[in-house]
Amino acid sequence: MTSRSHYHALCQQFKTIYHFEHLQALGDWDQATMMPAGGSQARGEAMAQLALHIHALKTAPSLAEHLAHAADEPLSAAQQANLREMRYQQRQATALPGKLVQAKTQLTYACEHAWRAQRQQNDWQGFKPNLEAVIALVREEAQILGEAQQLAPYDALLNKFEPGTTMAQIDRVFGDLKIWLPSLIQQVQAKQQAWPTKALPHATIAQQKALNLDVMTLLGFDFKQGRLDTSSHPFSGGVPGDVRITTRYDEHDFLTALFSTIHETGHARYEQGLPLEWRGQPAGNARSMAIHESQSLFFEMQMARGTGILPLLQQRINHHLGCQISELELQHWLTRVSPGRIRVDADEVTYPCHIMLRYEVEKGLIEGRLTVADLPEFWDAAMQSLLGLSTQGDYRNGCMQDIHWPVGELGYFPSYSLGAMYAAQFSASMQNQIGSIDALIAAGELTLVTQWLQDNIWSKGALLTTDELVIAATGETLNPAHFKQHLMTRYL
Amino acid sequence: MTSRSHYHALCQQFKTIYHFEHLQALGDWDQATMMPAGGSQARGEAMAQLALHIHALKTAPSLAEHLAHAADEPLSAAQQANLREMRYQQRQATALPGKLVQAKTQLTYACEHAWRAQRQQNDWQGFKPNLEAVIALVREEAQILGEAQQLAPYDALLNKFEPGTTMAQIDRVFGDLKIWLPSLIQQVQAKQQAWPTKALPHATIAQQKALNLDVMTLLGFDFKQGRLDTSSHPFSGGVPGDVRITTRYDEHDFLTALFSTIHETGHARYEQGLPLEWRGQPAGNARSMAIHESQSLFFEMQMARGTGILPLLQQRINHHLGCQISELELQHWLTRVSPGRIRVDADEVTYPCHIMLRYEVEKGLIEGRLTVADLPEFWDAAMQSLLGLSTQGDYRNGCMQDIHWPVGELGYFPSYSLGAMYAAQFSASMQNQIGSIDALIAAGELTLVTQWLQDNIWSKGALLTTDELVIAATGETLNPAHFKQHLMTRYL
Ligand SMILES: [Zn+2]
Ligand SMILES: [Zn+2]
Description:
Two copies of one chain form a homodimer.
Chain A: H1 2-33, H2 40-58, H3 61-70, H4 77-95, H5 98-120, H6 124-149, H7 153-161, H8 167-192, H9 205-218, E1 226-230, E2 236-239, E3 242-247, H10 254-272, H11 289-303, H12 310-321, H13 327-335, H14 351-367, H15 375-387, H16 414-434, H17 437-442, H18 446-456, H19 466-474, H20 481-491
Parallel strand pairs in A: 1-3
Antiparallel strand pairs in A: 2-3
Helix pairs in contact in A: 1-2, 1-3, 2-5, 3-4, 5-6, 6-7, 9-10, 9-12, 10-11, 11-16, 14-15, 16-20
The complex binds zinc ion (2 copies).
């Protein structure tokens, strides 16, 4: 029994950490959906205290000692994977001083809170000093994390969300994209020029909510294990067993809420489908944020903009909104390519441009080539060059549009494009193995599609590394060619 | 500086505890209002872990050491009061083993969760073993707390909610009540026999919600510092700065939701009015649960069923519900005395009977004279004797109706009747000092009424003991004669 005891002790300690992370997830969700403004300060302080406590648990000397000895114990492959994830979390935590973790939580809570109002008022001057403070802290964090892992500072940030990712890899992927994407965008726009434009029907929030709940049910969301709410920025939160997704409503554009809901439903089903027997252990977590986004984008792009699901969506839309949209009209809405200022409203063809811009900004901020003061000008120039749009003076739809920087989450954005690429790769692999998404759904077998994801992705938790997971599911590591092929097939 | 250091260190430690109690309040609120069933187990475990952690913070040796030395430091009267409250909390925590605290949290979370369904299904057989397990733990808790404070076990439970209260005191108060209350109930019923009975108008949930929000605004609820939601059992939760009250809706009885909302608004304004400069410290808390209930009952009974506010309520009801209720009809509804099975729906005259029954049950359960198995029979007999009603076979409206026992909160019920008595005493005192509630509100000076409460009760936090607080506000300690006088004046 002695030989198992270190690993067993680690499982206990990480279970305790999991319980406090549960409270962290709840506090974050509530702050975005329910909390009145007056609660902000006390919540920020409580969350900072909680972050400090979780940090203390992960950096406890006893945990390091058990980790040092557990590797010598006879463990199953799955237990070894759990140990690998434990070690990763412990190293990430140990690298950072607790004071920095606490300070960052409190600072970003305040910055995000202020940003909500500042963004609405297009108040760049008010936001700027707050963002400067956040960026200064994140640069410190990146520096420390990088030194601990012998990584460049920005690589260390990328690794927080997708372990193993490097700027070299992203540069290669985006470098390739930059070669073929601009001409593809032009070709698609030329092809779609003849498409008639028709305004979306007006839809009350109540109608939209009923529609969204219906579509979530169609997509297998388990309402005994989750809920849908409203927030100014859609997200998926909560914990497995209680997954909480949000959307936001625009009475003149029901598709925004519907498709953000479908996106978050993809995240949610991943969480709801994580391996029950590993719940509460690091190996039971989702693999990474790129894989997480691959699941949401699989739902939003691969499934929900395809031809197979089209009649099912059409019928539900017409039913709940009391309108008479044709299949063709809907298809045009769902696949129209049109450069815009807002990332979250972008179509899947122009979306990577938004990511490439943010990636360049983040690298520049972290490596010191760019300051927060430079941001608006840099942003405007990049949007002009990438999508031919000016954002001058329009901060709210320019460099103030995303929640990621106010909350200090630099290094996350590339996960979206990696996710889109993984999603295309999974889709291609599924097609080879059991048939295309469109064909399966048209044949009434939507559950076969999600079962494939359950078997190949969700049930694996973090038991495999990203590369192991993707190879097991598709036979190869990340291959952006599938994404290119997907766009060409669907849009040309 | 050395002389101040122990007290200062204590303030830091209690601030940390306050942050974790913030998360506890959030978890409790969410569990009752938002959480899907699937989240129950993980939440229960996380809350038990949190309770254990708070217990560990309160029982830390360093905290005891600072407490031992702080008394020798030169402290202001307010700081001494804060120290008194710290010491009380520390003693209460230290008496109980952490394992018991954790086990009780987890057990009562599960029991409450199951009870929600069992109550609906009138499933006494399913509920009984769960309640037996909770009562066994609470008996252990009472035993340990009693020994630590040299109190009888049930006195120790009373002290959790109202420090200083004893069975001897409650027995005296209730003994007196039993003498005059039954004949008063009969007299009032005889007087009201001639009142016409008229059904309440049907009201949608949306109409009721708008009405409730309007009345909350009238009563000074600050929506920047709180919110109103729905739960199966109305309560007031959250934290000062973010006070969350709930109600439940019945389309055939809008008064249930309205008056539970008014009740909880009283709790909420107390929390919102606590001294800002003491926020996060024990002296900044509400005084006790009896004083808390005195504020909710002041709002619900003293203010909202009086003649002064009647036209203001009438106008808002007719506006939001689109009906034409007369002042007299409304007054009859608000003051009709009618024995019923459900405590929370009881009028203020028969309400004490419900409390006396529960008080006898709790004493019996804790002192071992009564078992859980005896409950239905005891309940039926007591209801027959007190109010002339049988509850045989109707467990859901009998001994399964309250949330207090599933969650292990024995010792709380007397706070309601003490609160009603304090409310009447405050009302009488206010009348002497600035005029009667009804006269002030009729003169458009509702804010003078709440300002009196702000000055005399809310702003004092826990800086005074209950007796000190009540003497400062009214010139005497608890005097039930005011309650008797109030009922006679209003109902005879
Ligand atoms: Zn996403
Ligand atoms: Zn109350």
